[in-house]
Amino acid sequence: MTARVTLVSLLVVSGCTGAEDALRPVAEPPQVEAVDRNPDPGIVEVELTATVGTTTLDGVDVPIWGYADGDGLPTMPGPMIVAEPGDLLVVHFYNQLEDGTTLHFHGPRLPNEMDGAPVGGAIVAPGESFDYVFPLEDAGTFWYHPHWDTARQLERGLYGQLVVREPAVAGANERFFLLDDVDRDDSGHIVVEATEDDRRFGRRGDTMLVNGAVSPVLDLSSNALERWHLTNASNGRYFALRIPEHTFTVIGTDGGLLGESYDTKRLVMTPGSRFDVVVSITGAPGDTIDVMTEPVDRGPSSPNDVSHRLMTLRLGAAGSSPPDGWKGSLPRRQIAPIDVSGAKARELRLGAAERPDAVSFYINAESWPFAEPEQGVVGDVEVWSVVNDTATSEPFHLHGTFVQPLDLDGTAWPHLSLEDVVDIPSGSTVRLAVPLEREGNWMFHSHILEHAELGMMRVLRLVR
Ligand code: C2O
Ligand code: CU
Question: What is the pTM of this model?
Answer without folding.
Answer: 0.94
